[in-house]
Amino acid sequence: MPSQCSQMWMSYTARGLDRYEIEVSHPELGKFQRLKGDNQYVVTQKANAKMQMWDEMWRKRVAVQEKRNQQDAKVRAAEENLQEATDRTEEAQAEQESLRTLLVDSLDHGPLVDWEQLKDFSPCPISRPLPPDRPVDPPKPKLGREPNCYDPEFEPEKGFFDWLFPGKKKAKEEAAESRFQAAQQLWQTKLDGLQAQHAETVAQQEQQWKRRQQDYQDQLADWDQERGLHSDAEALLL
User: Roughly what angle, to the nearest 10 degrees, separates helices 166-236 and 40-109?
Assistant: First the structure.
């Protein structure tokens, strides 16, 4: 929330001199100040400076809070991931202990369980994620041939009287040169625009590619963890 400023009012001192007053505040910071002076411009500048200072203080406070919130979110996410990993580990350990107990009971009381039926030879239920395909770079921009001063459209018009009136001939040459300069400038402007657009597209595509690579690495890590749990359970039955 930005700083607030009241309307300036004028009063008179005991000596009959002008006195200007204005109030500035920032509710979020709990700031309030009344500024006085005998010069309206100076009082206004003081008020603006004070509000700018408070606004900057508030901006920094908001930035710190946002950073703190982001850090808290990261901590919560890490704690949730840790808890999830702990739960899954406990589940695997409980399953392992159950199988060991079952094995001991079987040895003590005879072969009550057909272990061959309990063996799970099925592959890991989650298939390995496929790496993303790198996108093809967008084609470079193409533009028509750059204008040339020797192109027919830039040749000055020739007439019989051009030799009799050199000034007329010069005017035609200058007009042709102007047409060429304008065409060349337009061509260069279009080329610069296409190149800038191409560079922006390449940059955006590169960012998307990096995000897809990171997503793939995350998926691969999850897959490795799932495969490890499946292998541990399978090893107990062999």
Answer: 30
For the chain, how many residues are written? 238
Rounded to 5°, the CA angle 49-44-13 comes to: 130
Q: Is 37 helix (H, G, I), strand (E, B) or coil?
A: strand
pTM of the model: 0.40
**Tens of pLDDT, residues 123-142:** 656 678 888 888 888 888 88
How many whole angstroms separate alpha carbon 209 and alpha carbon 219? 15
What is the DSSP secondary structure assignment for residue 28, as one 8-state letter? Answer: T
Placement of tokens 């009012």 in the chain: 9
Amino acid making up residue 133: D
Distance of alpha carbon 233 from alpha carbon 238, whole angstroms = 9
Spatial separation of the C-alpha atoms in residues 228 and 218, rounded to whole Å = 16
**Whole-angstrom distance, CA of residue 29 vs CA of residue 191:** 51
Two tokens at 3?
Answer: 């700083």
CB 156 within 8 A of CB 173: yes
Residues 6+ apart with CB under 8 A from 237: 99, 115, 118, 119, 120
Calculate Rg over the CA atoms of the chain. 40
Distance of alpha carbon 6 from alpha carbon 34, whole angstroms: 10
